[in-house]
Amino acid sequence: MLPLQQGVSINPEQYISPLVSAVTTVVLFVVAFALIYWIGKSFMSQTVERGLEHRDFDQTLIDLAVSTTGVVVAVVAVALAATVAGFGVVLAAFATLAGALALAIGFAAQDLIENFVAGVFIIQDKPFTTGDWIEWDGNSGVVREVQLRVTKLDTFDNQLVTVPNSDLADAALINNEANDERRISVDFGIGYDDDIKQARKAIIDEAKRMDGVLTDPVPTAPVTELGDSAVVLQGRIWIDTDESSYGPVRARFIEAVKERFDEEGLDMPYPNTELTGDITVSNTSTIETTADD
User: Fold this and answer.
1) pLDDT one-digit tens code per residue, 243-260
2) Over residues 203-228, mean pLDDT
3) For 188-216, what is the mean pLDDT?
4) Looking at the chain, which residues constitute the CATH 2.30.30.60 domain(s)?
5) Sequence ranges of the chain with CATH classification 3.30.70.100
6) HEC string of 78-119?
7) CA 18 to CA 22: how far, in whole Å?
8) Average model confidence (pLDDT) for the chain?
9) What DSSP string runs through the chain?
């Protein structure tokens, strides 16, 4: 059994120098970080904000850019402060780890990044804004909110649709509210024996009586097709998209013309097919024998 050593003395002075060195390093790091971050953020944030405002960027993008600038300045401040304080080895290890982590996150969040970038372009380019009725890839809806990742729309059945921004950015998109005026076109078919001029007058008269229909451009009703069972006249009217809605005006226009056609005896024929030719019946003896049985 080994005897315990007695009388071992501990000299506190041997720990003072390393402790002072560590405290000095930490204080130097904190001071350097605070100065670099404060000066860098004040200068860079103001520069970015003024530059984007001068180029008429959307306020949402300006706020995002300023916030991103603050994060970048903080990272740079940490790197510079660590270098000043003598944390070079730790900084190198941290940089390697951060690079690997950024690469992994980039692969895992490809769709998220794609939608985010698309959202930035949508907010800046403004192919549509809140309240616009848009159509894309066979879908349609009224824009409720444009976010950086998704766009929220309301359907005409009052359903909420959330669409990734990349889908809208890549699609051939129709904005029905982009222009101040919009044309409504409706096809009306009449019989081949009906008077085209009478039908055209009826369509134009009903269009002129309707509220919300512009007088310039004037309503028209040209013949656009000679169908299999009808002569097609296309009623064309124009509305102000800020004052009138497409759907209700179109519905009232169709109903008014239908009632006018009924009053004037204008036929709106159903599609039909006329078959011509001869029919030859063979083996009549077999049919007669069967009938006698």
Assistant:
1) 888 889 999 999 999 999
2) 93
3) 93
4) 127-175
5) 181-264
6) HHHHHHHHCCHHHHHHHHHHHHHHHHHHHHHCHHHHHHHHHH
7) 6
8) 81
9) -PPPP------THHHHHHHHHHHHHHHHHHHHHHHHHHHHHHHHHHHHHHHHHHTT--HHHHHHHHHHHHHHHHHHHHHHHHHHHT-HHHHHHHHHHHHHHHHHHHHHTHHHHHHHHHHHHHHHH-SS-TT-EEEETTEEEEEEEE-SSEEEEE-TTS-EEEEEHHHHHHS--EETTSSSEEEEEEEEEE-TTS-HHHHHHHHHHHHHHSTTB-SSSPPB--EEEE-SS-EEEEEEEEEETTT--HHHHHHHHHHHHHHHHHHHT---PPP-----S------HHHHHHHHH-
Q: CA 215, CA 209: separation in Å to the nearest integer?
A: 10
| Domain 127-175 architecture | Roll (2.30)
- The pLDDT of residue 20: 66
CATH class for the domain made up of 181-264: alpha beta
